[in-house]
Amino acid sequence: MEIPYTTQPREDTGLYNAKLGIWLFLASEVMLFGALFSSYILLRVGAAEGAWPHGLMNIPIGTFNTVVLITSSVTVVLSWAALKLGNFKRYQKIQAVTVICALGFLGIKTTEYNEKFHHYEIWFNEPMTVAEHPNLMNQSFVEETTINKELIGTVPSLIGHLNYIDKDGEKHHAGIAWTLATLKEKEIEEIEFELDTFHYRIPARIQAQIKKSGKYDKGEHETIRVQVSDLRRMSAFVPAHSTFFAIYFTMTALHALHVLAGAIVIAYILWRNNKLWKRDPERYTNRVEVSGLFWHFVDLVWIFLFPILYLL
Amino acid sequence: MSDDHSSPEYIEAAKKKYWKVFWVLMFGTFITVAMYFVYFEKMWQTVTVALLIATAKATCVAAIFMHLWGEKKLVYQILYATVFFFIGLMWLTLWAMNDAPFMTEWVR
Amino acid sequence: MQATTTEKTEHTEHHDHHHHDIGFLRSYVFSTDHKIIGIQYGVTALAFLLFGFFLVLLMRFQIGYPGETIPVVGGLLEKLLGDVAAEGKMQPDLYNAFGAMHGTIMVFLGVVPLAFAAFGNYVVPLQIGAIDMAFPRINMVSYQCYAAGGVIMFVSFFIPGGAAQAGWTSYSPLATVIPTNGQTFWILGMVMLITSSLLGSVNFIATIIQLRAPGMTWMRMPFFVWTQFITGFILLLAFPPLEAASVMQLMDRLFDTSFYLPSGLVLSGQPVTQISGGGSPLLWQHLFWFLGHPEVYVLILPAMGVVAEVLACNARRPLWGYRSLVYSVLAVGFISFIVWAHHMYVTGMGTKISTFFQTTTMIISIPSVIILTCLFISLWGGSIRFNTPMCFALAFLPMFGIGGLTGLPLGFNFADLLLHDSYYVIAHFHYVVAPGTIFGLLAGVYFWYPKMTGRLMNEALGQVHFWASLIFMNLIFMPMFAQGMAGMSRRMSDGGAVYAAQAEGMVNEGVIGALSASVIEWNKSITFAACGLMIAQIPFIINFFWSMNNGRKATDNPWNATTLDWQTPTPPPHGNFDKPIAAYRGPYEYSQEGHPTDFTPQNQPDPVKS
Question: Which pLDDT score is estimated for A212?
């Protein structure tokens, strides 16, 4: 006995079972991501003055990933159209692009994560006076721009790459996601910080201004030595860094899981399910449509994630 | 699904539409990123513009790619309910978090 | 599809599903048949209910006799759990773990799976005339997720440090900062359970929308199907926010994030410096109760549906106000999403928002009262059969009434400020869920047992079970109202003994106020009543297993009921109906004039028309 309406739509609803099922599932997904979006807004609105980090994201990579995902979305729908026209070969070609895009997205996301894990922020017990540490500023581009006030004076924290000095006074690169506890465990007393001031302290529009003025001299690798005992807290750009990174990693990781799941399903239908096309082409097309609906939803979530996490 | 939605002519026309949407989305992305370098006086202006663009893009994806445009009534009913509850969740939570008891105020 | 002959359907069934030659594992363990899955859910859920009850029995002993060795099982507990039960005495940590897990198990592993998944799976496809659920394999995975969640929760008792201790509500920061792994297990278990109910609810809704038999219009659906339909939507849309919240709590615990940890957090007098801070403890509460309150209706609506079926059948009367019942249940479903913050009045809510939530809370009581009133009026003029399922269904009405009405003071913030976190709250929601929902579900077990097994349950044992349960339930929960109003706080491992010490002049530091000895004395009588309730379940357990092979043989329709689930062979075969089925009339045509019997099945065509 066959369950009715697996392929043909039921007359009064106009839908076949799987299509109704996927829409119900997507409704639930809306609530899942909706709760996370609500949490994002709430944490951000509730953040103390100046506590919400800005400009820590790599915008070119994020933009490229957006383009990749949009491309995959259009290939999914075009492959479905090819199936509707009965052109299986063409469907296979286009849908393969979708899978490649999905894997590309995940690969790019991985390198982006990795880049984040290698950046550190250190907070001092007492705010550090910039004037005493000329290295903190890249004089050539700071002096003549409007941002003097933002950098001169005292800073509560610095951003950059972490090296540590061992007992023999030798310098080593630190691993990923270290904290103060790690330093204490390894009995490290002094660290050397490679400053990344330009990218992470200056608002993007002013960065652009500086670059245009031609005074940009990549002052990224100036260093400063700090005693561990002067540090209040240290964190890589990992979820524990701030509520911003917490929600960033939670949302993008959950989204990446959806990308992975979608890619697996699409690839399975594409390469492991061909017998169904010969036996029941309409049902096969429906499967492609339903997996496509899920894929578009994943794209749709990213359309919101990109501006709120990277740009705002 | 009625026949006119799966006829070859309809699909061929739809394919053109999909490409159009693709370029609209690309343009939307470009605008969003460009926005980042445009300076607005107030934060809420930036947020509004960015979310408007994102919503427009999302609408395109939902309406055209997901075939919501002309979808059956039932799907709309499910989505209306979902949107209602989603707005309830977000709006009431935010309201509760920003409504301090009488004669008090939130300290951040 | 409907025109296929019986012979042909059997043939295709054999080839498409290979059901007859697939062996024990595929037919009973990895079955995709909705009836087998329903029974799997039912048996597992009943076992978990018993387990959850056992936990609270131990807690009741500790409350009645703080710090004394637990009789009978004390030694066993020490062997199994170690130091937290040293010398067979319950340490506060163990009490907290049992308290948290009692709530979790009863709600998420006991009542919801029994009410929604077990009865829903077994009965809904039969009642709407479908051959199975819309997505049978997803249905199987749903049960497996539930089983996995159950195993994770159960195993967590035996890991070092024991199970979760932060209450079933798992409020952060407490739940985040407890160093043992119980809470992490709890979260992982919840994620599995949420996945399970997500898959289940998609399946239920799709089945009810798509697979109704010809003629089974929306207003011909039995009320039970309606309640399951709405419950499905609640689970579908209210659970995901808790999933998101759980993921964030998991991040807090495993990756040291600060979603729920505010800046300036102080733990045991020590400021916490190595976290980023900036989170919000209230965020957890909002997301939790966004599920938590609709969850109450997930618990109660299916029970109402069962009670409606049993009442109509055994009163031999159509349900009074079927349409108002349907619209009420729709209204309850909708409004249940916007009342949640009435659990949070003491968190410091503003006047405007608390007015909003008080208003919606009062509004939602209206459809609930309509449902209860309709069920009461349905009895009027009926020729009632007082069999065991009917007794449980009848007891549901006043018990749920007590539970519901005592909830009203909690819906007003000024009264709630006094009653919050007291035994009054415990009494209130237990009246709704224990003698309310569980009585409704027991009515369902006795009612559908003959359909599932082909044999009726023993009536004498059933009556003993019913009367003993009813009496002991009230002896347990009625005094708690008084204790709560006297100011006795919940979640105290010594049952308020510190307050008694205060009354006797023994001043304990940090204890304000006192409870009179008579209030504390109730703890002992409640403990005895709880033991009585446990003993009262023994006839049920015996009945449940004994009747499978020795009960009176049931006909296809032993209760002379009208709905489609009784118009099948008993027990129903794979594919459910031996002939194509359609509905020609409403679900409750009992005692209709001009019909030879006092019931007219839904699939009986109108003689005039055919």
Answer: 67
Tell me how far the alpha carbon of residue C320 is from its chain's centroid: 26
Q: Give the SS3 label for residue A243.
A: helix
Q: How far is C21 from chain B (nearest CA, A)?
A: 38
One-letter identity of residue C259: F
**Given the DSSP bridges, would you call strands C266-267 and C270-271 parallel, antiparallel or unpaired?**
antiparallel
Mean pLDDT, residues C479-493: 90
Residue whose token pair is 């496809």 = C125
Taking the C-alpha atoms of residue C45 and residue C396, their distance in angstroms, rounded to an integer, is 20
Cross-chain Cβ contact B92/C338 below 8 Å: yes
Measured between beta carbons, which residues in chain A are less than 8 angstroms from residue B56?
none
**Which string of b and e fits A54-93 if b means at least 16 CB within 10 Å?**
ebbbeeeebbebbbbbbbbbbbbbbbbbbbbeeeeeebbe
Q: How many domains does chain B have?
A: 1
Q: Rounded CA gap, C345 and C414, in Å? A: 9
Which of C197, C200, C282 lies closest to C245, judged by CA?
C282
Residue type, C275: I
**C319-361 residue pLDDT tens:** 999 999 999 999 999 999 999 999 999 988 888 999 999 999 9
Structure tokens at A173: 């690169």
Q: How far is CA C594 from the centre of its chain?
A: 41
C236: nearest CA partner in chain A = A28
Share of chain A above pLDDT 70, in %: 83
Q: Is the ipTM of this complex over 0.90?
A: yes
Residues of A in contact with B76 (CB under 8 A): none
| Residue of A265, A264, A229, A199 lying closest to A125 (CA atoms) | A229
Structure tokens at C319: 């349900």
User: Residue A151 pLDDT > 70, yes or no?
Assistant: no
Tell me, yes or no, whether B99 lies in a domain: no
- Per-residue pLDDT tens digits for A128-139: 766 555 555 554
Q: Is residue B84 part of a domain?
A: no
Residue with tokens 């490290």: A188
Domains of chain A: 33-117+241-311 (1.20.120.80), 120-236 (no CATH)
Q: How far is B74 from chain C (nearest CA, A)?
A: 10
The phi, psi pair for A171, rounded to 5°, reads -100, 135
Domain that holds residue B37: 3-71
Q: Do C349 and B85 touch (CB under 8 A)?
A: no
Taking the C-alpha atoms of residue C243 and residue C247, their distance in angstroms, rounded to an integer, is 6
How many C-alpha atoms does A48 have within 13 Å on its Cβ side? 11
Better-predicted residue by pLDDT, C562 or B100: C562
Closest Cβ–Cβ partner in C198, C241, C280 for A42: C280
CB atoms under 10 Å from CB of C158, counted, come to: 11
Confidence class of residue A210 from pLDDT cuts 50, 70 and 90? low
How many residues does this entry show for chain B? 108
Residues of chain B with pLDDT under 70: 1-4, 106-108
Token look-up 């002096």 returns: A143
Interface test with B, best of A38, A283, A285 (most B CBs within 10 A): A38
Q: What is the 3-state secondary structure (H, E, C) of C250-270?
A: HHHHHCCCCCCCCCCCEECCE
- Domain C31-260+278-566: CATH superfamily is Cytochrome c oxidase-like, subunit I domain (1.20.210.10)
Distance from C-alpha of C410 to C-alpha of C413, rounded to nearest angstrom: 7
Considering only CB atoms, which chain A residues are within 8 Å of B96? none
Kindly determine whether residue A46 and residue C238, on different chains, have CB atoms separated by under 8 Å: no
Q: Which residues contact C253 (CB under 8 A, 6 or more apart)?
A: C176, C183, C184, C187
Gyration radius from chain B CA atoms:
20
Cα–Cα distance for residue pair B28/C498, rounded to 1 Å? 66
DSSP C563: S
- Could you tell me which residues are beta bridge partners of residue C590? C599
